[in-house]
Design a protein that fits this description.
This protein is mainly β. It contains 1 helix and 9 strands.
């Protein structure tokens, strides 16, 4: 899908408003470029392709946090139904998390010892979480879930 992307770090604008500075790398607004393939959605969510199974994030919302018991909800994400490779030549670079299309956080991965999975502890009770996974070869894949 078409969108505005930071040409320095790959951050994708979801709310349609290009920021004055990138929230990830702080580059100026001039670093953003319109891209036809800013991110990829599943063609058919009920029948994913092999590529989609390795790249589209799977989101799990845990309403009761095990770490912060009061007022915390966990959001876990991993890459796909099939775990994405984490090889030096082909790996998941990062996940970007958004709440109601507003940027929350980026989790970076290095190839080798890490699995492409991450979690956040949210102080909110409702909304829509979005995760964009960034593969160094196949681009950005998106998934959303209600919390």
């Amino acid at each position: 899908m078409k969108g505005s992307v930071c040409s320095v770090c790959g951050y994708v604008v979801l709310d349609g408003v290009t920021p004055e500075n990138c929230p990830v790398c702080h580059s100026p607004k001039t670093a953003f470029k319109e891209k036809e393939e800013a991110f990829i959605r599943a063609q058919d969510p009920k029948s994913l392709t092999e590529l989609e199974k390795k790249h589209i994030p799977v989101i799990v919302v845990v309403k009761k946090c095990g770490l912060i018991p009061d007022g915390c909800m966990d959001v876990h994400a991993k890459t796909g139904e099939i775990v994405h490779p984490m090889l030096p030549e082909h790996f998941m670079m990062s996940f970007d998390f958004y709440l109601d299309k507003k940027y929350l956080s980026r989790i970076m991965f290095t190839p080798g010892s890490l699995n492409p999975a991450a979690g956040l502890h949210l102080k909110v009770k409702s909304g829509r979480i979005t995760v964009i996974s960034h593969c160094n070869i196949h681009g950005n894949y998106i998934q959303e879930a209600a919390i």
